[in-house]
Amino acid sequence: MATHIRLRRLGAKKRPTYRFVATDSRMPRDGRFLEILGQYNPIEKPARVKINEERISYWLDQGAVPSDTVINLLKQIGFMKKYEMVKKGGDISTLVVAETITERPKKRKRTKGVKETKAEA
Fold first, then answer.
1. Angle 68-77/79-88 helices, nearest 10 degrees?
2. Whole-angstrom Cα distance, residue 40 to residue 66?
3. Quick one: angle between helices 79-88 and 53-61, nearest 10?
4. CATH superfamily of 3-104
5. Where are the domains of the chain?
6. Cβ contact 59:4 at 8 Å
7. Edge-to-edge, what's the strand order for the sheet holding 47-51?
8. pLDDT tens-digit profile of 8-20?
9. Looking at the whole model, is its pTM more than 0.90?
10. 3-class DSSP state for residue 7?
11. Which ranges of the chain would DSSP assign to H, the alpha helix?
12. Nearest-CA neighbor of 83 among 57, 61, 108, 101?
């Protein structure tokens, strides 16, 4: 059985919240799961992430494969760095896992005036 750690969508229409779950890879996104590992609320500003570090570490040690989105979220809160330090046997007393994610700056749209001045130069 291939185990994955991925997000399970909850919440109302256009108001999503997610749970980190350990699940069999053959199950659908919102289908049956093995264990709830945490929560992610992207609607709050800043976005809030709560995880059970011990259980996520356990599943990663058992060979569970996290999805790309889960890896990105865990990196942003600092869990992956802490997990790698534990695996190497390093000092983790100074590492703290954050509960919030800062929002990335939005890309700015180019204006026509900028394109024209570059073409003239």
1. 80
2. 15
3. 60
4. Ribosomal protein S16 (3.30.1320.10)
5. 3-104
6. no
7. 65-66, 3-12, 15-24, 35-41, 47-51, 100-101
8. 999 999 999 999 9
9. no
10. strand
11. 53-61, 68-77, 79-88, 112-120
12. 57
pLDDT digit string (tens) for 32-90? 889 999 999 999 889 999 999 999 999 999 999 999 999 999 999 989 888 888 888 88
| Separation CA 49–CA 47 (nearest Å) | 7
- Greatest C-alpha distance within the chain: 62
Identify the burial level of 21 via C-beta atoms within 10 angstroms of its C-beta, where 0-12 means exposed, 13-18 middle and 19 or more buried: buried
Q: How far is CA 107 from CA 97, 104, 110, in A?
A: 28, 9, 9
Residue 63 CA from chain centroid, whole number: 18
C-alpha 3/C-alpha 112 separation (Å) is 50
Match 């059970």 to its residue by tokens.
52
Residues in the chain: 121
Q: Cα dihedral angle (6, 27, 12, 73), rounded to 10 degrees?
A: 10
Say how far apart CA 97 and CA 38 lie, in whole Å.
Answer: 13
